[in-house]
Amino acid sequence: MLAPLQRLEQLKARVREAIATPGFGHPHGLVSLALELPQPLHAAPELSGPRFQFAHSHRGELRAGYGIAAEWQAAGEQRLQRLREQARAAATDWHQLDPDETGLGGFAMLGFAATPEPTTTPGASDLPNAVYWIPEVALSTSGEQSALILSTRLPVEPEALLTRWDAWLERLVPLLAQPARAPLTPATLERGPSEPALEPWRDLVLAALDAIERDGPLEKLVLCRRQRLQGHRRFDLDRLNDALAYLFPSCQVINVRHRESCFVAATPERLFTLRGRRVEADAIAGTACRAADAARDAALTAELLGCAKNLHEHQVVVAAVGAALERCCTRLEPVEGPRVMQLNNAQHLWSLVRGEVDAAGDVFSLAELLHPTPATNGQPRRDAHDWLRRNEPFERDWYTGAAGIVEPDLSGELWVLLRCARVAADSAELYAGAGIVPGSDPVSEWEEIDHKFAAIATALQFA
Ligand SMILES: C=C(O[C@@H]1C=C(C(=O)O)C=C[C@H]1O)C(=O)O
Where is the Chorismate-utilising enzyme C-terminal domain (predicted)? Predict the structure, then answer.
């Protein structure tokens, strides 16, 4: 193993050396070059242009990408099947070079909006409906091992590639060694109106309850709100990432920026993890707030575990996740849970559903089967989707979509896009929702969503 590469000039020399090797001479396909970095990275520094980040403090994991080496976009009912075909074709011709034996390599990001219909509201989104994206430059940290990974389509002219990659290294490498910056004085953020406002929200919840209680298939609907926050300074993504990692160390801190605004989330909920043939999915539904006083907090936890309405809301999700996995698994393990997942601003009922997928299983087929779960949409899936399309006052865009890292063998992990905001310059739009089942009360659900908004709102104050 080579000594850790600490300086820009060393990395540039390594890149020049690598570009001259046969790996770059293939007449087609993709090549990724991984070079060892000396220290674990906790967050990916901000650079202008397209970027994404997935950072998980407790796990000590970071995956980030900048620029676009290759990407495929899709919308409509077939969006995941179409991306799957393209990802499969790309995977068969993707050469991985790992001269430092880091064990790390090129990867892609898969992300998609809540629903496959393209947005109809002008300006509502600057993210593609669904995208499979191989970044030109990536950072990867797993435990103590870190790498910088450069990827390109082939064939490529070596001198042009070297010029391009040198420019990336010059922009990025000096930022990797920067010490954490001192936090800013928390800013006052002005709350804009909530969409819907309280009265129309009450009507919406009552209409949902009516639809559920009528003789029909609907068992559960998840309704959401949008809240605008206006800051007095431009939000700083590095500081926002630091604050989210500090406040939510057990959540996945996600950023995705394709064009202008940055979609940011600190989500506790995995859609699934697929490693080898083993799949693990979270079922999270049923929420209580936290209390500063330990005895009160324990009482809230006990209440949540004993609340029939929350247990029913949770069970609907467990059953749907189990049924989805049954369709692609050769073996399912007994469900683990519900237990309580505690976050800074909320606590949730949480169960784990695990199994072994059949030979056809990959991230795309699992995403198709599992997304959206009744945790964010409702049950049954199609009826809930149609009801929400007719009744929700705005488009969800990527909120309650999913995103994550896909390995070249099409295994990987996707996260449900919750506790999120679309951040542009000095303003942010926050999205959050709550599950409605018989017994749900409009005002309690309104307050539950306020607690969920607090996840990103608190971090934005320090950005
Ligand atoms: C829809 C959201 O959260 C979902 C709804 C929950 C609930 O209603 O109890 C809990 C966790 C999430 O699955 C959100 O945070 O926006």
Answer: 199-452
